Structure prediction request, 303 residues.
Amino acid sequence: MHDHAPTGIRGAGNRRLLAISLAITASVMVVQIAGAALSGSLALLADAAHMFTDAAALVIALIASTVAARPANDRRTFGYQRAEVFGALINGAILIGLSVWVAFESISRLLNPGTTEVAGTLMLIVAIVGLVANGVAMWLLSSAQRRSINVRGAYLEVLGDLIGSAAVIIAAITIVTTGWYQADAIASLFIAAMIIPRAVGLLREVGSVLAESAPKGTHVREIREHILATPGVVDVHDVHVWQLTRGAPVFTAHVVVDGVALADGRAGGILRTLQSCLSDHFDVEHSTFQLEPAGHVEHEAHA
Prediction:
């Protein structure tokens, strides 16, 4: 007995906002890469890498909202939601590599001052474009992020990049006014330091999902207590909770039901109560319960 209610992770309106934000972010990223090549600014290149993290986060968010609407089939009974996880794994690995390279290059420039000149004015113009674009993206997502955890994740990513753009602007102003090129390398280190924890956190989350660990914030003991508090429930065992991808937890359990409740035909009501409990209190919309009479556990063990 189970409930296969759609996860309802994201609506079409949220997908449209995410797509617009992605277009803005990707466009500015390309501009920053070109600006970095023309100005010699490592900070702009680092900020472009930072923008890449935002673009990747928006892509992942769009994937999550799209695959949630795709029906399962006989081959992929859970649908295609794991595609997001593998995408996040590739994303995290790329980010680690980029941030390590940026940090190495920044330190090299700091140890060898004067070896690289930076066109501060061009750097400043491109950084301001990035700041404005991130501000627009945040404004687009500001309302929807209050209603969707997925959109909120993208919103926070853009906020982080806004801070990175501000750091590049400060470095550019310093270069324009003082000619101190090391400011570019310092801003690059700051941005790399912002990327690495996010990349490591992403890889840890991927590892947790692939290991089928309980989602962060999910307390199995509390779920057991809620199930046992349901009228007619005698015991619960074989409790498992994992997630297909971020925001898509799955729950299964064997629930021992009082024989009188089964005889009175209350099994359907108990099942609906259990499913509502998981959905309302623990945000688990895909739950599977096996209702069984007392003594069935011993039968399973013998089998």
User: Anything to note?
Assistant: Confidence is low (pLDDT under 50) at residues 1-11. The first helix runs from residue 12 to 39. The two ends are 21 Å apart (CA to CA).
